[in-house]
Amino acid sequence: MSWLLWGSSQKLTGSYPGGQKLFRCSFSMDQIDMESPHSKWQTSGNVSWTMGVVNTKNEEGSKTEELKVYIKCHLEPHIETLVEENWHLEADYVVRLINHSNSSKNVYTRGSTSFSKTKEESMSSLIKLSDITDDFLLNDELTFEVEIGVKSSEGLPKSVDFMVKRPDSDAILTVGKEKFYIDKEVLSKNSTVFEEMFKADGAGKAKNEYPVDDVNPDIFHLFVKLASDVPMQFDLDNIDDLLKMSERFKIDNVKLKCKDFLMNSVVDDAVALKIADQHGMLDVIEEKLKPLKTIPELKKAFKYYRRFSDDSMRLLLKKLIQVA
């Protein structure tokens, strides 16, 4: 399969009941030259995904310098114990190499493949290093956008439902009329707030029910899944509430997952920057500023700047000086 010129229509357009994932990653030319870098793992449903790059010059017997691009599917250890031996899933994918000067000259490769226990990786394409011009480089890095859609799957467990009692449930968190059956040890390990809550007797016959006030039950369900280390996909609409809950219940791993989403997912930059500013994530703002090269791009990304903190405004002014 070869790399092709990419137009705006080259996106996934099918039906993907198993979920879709869209993320961005960058690798320096030094990384590509010296090793085989891959992106951070990105969760969609019960599986995680990464995209990696291999320089063929590092392969034994190779006489050319070309890039192999691959997609890899992975199951978390606690999910592996729940799947059937012959599990498999069917997925479509598109990988786009970004041209920073002219998006109509992006290049892309796409494919459709089956992943399983014996086939977790799909090598997708080759591109000659000599074909990569300066327009594809930003701070000596190549930037890729990855889009994955799961068409079907068999043998994988359904996502954990904390509204259903399970064998490992030993406490109940009540939100209004809704009840969430949780494992006290798991939440206590991740949160000092829950740890202190569970030291006291709860309500109910078994004295194991604990009320949680002022939260949306749907978002709280998602939050409990993330706080319990259950692989879970979420979107930009959930981030602000999830961050507020992570701060309220002092769960750093949920905040880190939200931060990683803001940094690496392809989302509305203006909204992502606004949320990052509200929650003091200056490292997210710095990362989002990197690919912006013109005043119009900065104005579009910072359309909510009037509400930004002084620290965030200093980063914006520094970038304005660089591109002016």
Would you kindly provide a written description of the structure presented here, covering whatever features stand out?
The chain is an alpha+beta fold and about 325 residues long. It has 3 domains: about 5-155, Apoptosis, Tumor Necrosis Factor Receptor Associated Protein 2, Chain A, CATH 2.60.210.10; about 170-260, 2-Layer Sandwich (Potassium Channel Kv1.1, Chain A), CATH 3.30.710.10; about 270-324, no CATH class. Helix content is about 30%, strand content about 25%. The protein has helices at about 30-35, 75-80, 185-190, 190-200, 215-225, 235-250, 250-265, 270-280, 280-290, 295-300, 310-324; strands at about 5, 20-30, 40-45, 45-55, 65-75, 90-95, 105-115, 120-130, 135-140, 140-155, 170-175, 180, 210. The strands form 3 sheets. Strands 1, 2, 6, 7, 9 and 10 form a 6-stranded antiparallel beta sheet that branches. Strands 3-4-5-8 form a 4-stranded antiparallel beta sheet. Strands 12-11-13 form a 3-stranded mixed beta sheet. It starts with a strand and ends with a helix. About 30% of the residues are buried. Mean pLDDT is about 85; it is low at about 1-10.
Keywords for this entry:
alpha+beta; Apoptosis, Tumor Necrosis Factor Receptor Associated Protein 2, Chain A; Potassium Channel Kv1.1, Chain A; four-stranded antiparallel sheet; 11 helices; SKP1/BTB/POZ_sf; BTB/POZ_dom; TRAF-like; BTB domain-containing protein
Brief characterization of the structure:
By secondary structure, the chain is an alpha+beta fold. It folds into three domains: 4-154, Apoptosis, Tumor Necrosis Factor Receptor Associated Protein 2, Chain A (Sandwich); 171-259, Potassium Channel Kv1.1, Chain A (2-Layer Sandwich); 268-323, no CATH class.
